């Protein structure tokens, strides 16, 4: 029988199962969408200022948001790679075009170790993570179908 461990999901140390990986990426996507939507509603001219040719505060804000999102994407990817008992340095493959798609599919479909590995014991997937992961899966499928449908309509 394997022993489970509880840890901070926002740290690169530790492991993420497939469902936890999808759930935290979904949470990150929802948070970013909500944040940008709130900024667009509160100060629409902050994000789009076509009258000035300089980089305004809105662009600086978007760059900061993007860097934070990129950081957390790396954290989640490292934790998922650890679940496969590989080094977190493989997360740098996200930066390589086409290889990043293959890596993403690998992380989604490859099962993790069900026992203790070099990066610790498996982390249990919480109930809310399972629900959020399934919502993300459905949204991804709908996005793919919507893209295909819009391609056929064009």
Furnish the topology, listing elements before pairings.
Elements lengths: L17 H25 L1 H4 L9 H27 L15 H11 L17 H27 L1
Helix pairs in contact: 1-3, 1-5
What does the largest sheet look like? none
In whole angstroms, the N-to-C terminal distance is: 55 Å
Summed up, the helix count is 5
Given helix and strand content, the structural type is mainly alpha
Give the fraction of residues assigned to helices.
55-70%
> What value does the average pLDDT take?
85
Q: How many strands in all?
A: 0
- Rg over alpha carbons: 18 Å
Our estimate of the beta-strand percent is under 5%
- The shape is globular
Uncertain regions spanning at least 5 consecutive residues:
none
Order of helices and strands: HHHHH
Walkthrough of the structure:
There is one protein chain. With 154 residues, the protein is an all-alpha fold. The protein has five helices and no strands. Helix 1 runs antiparallel to helix 3 and helix 1 crosses helix 5.
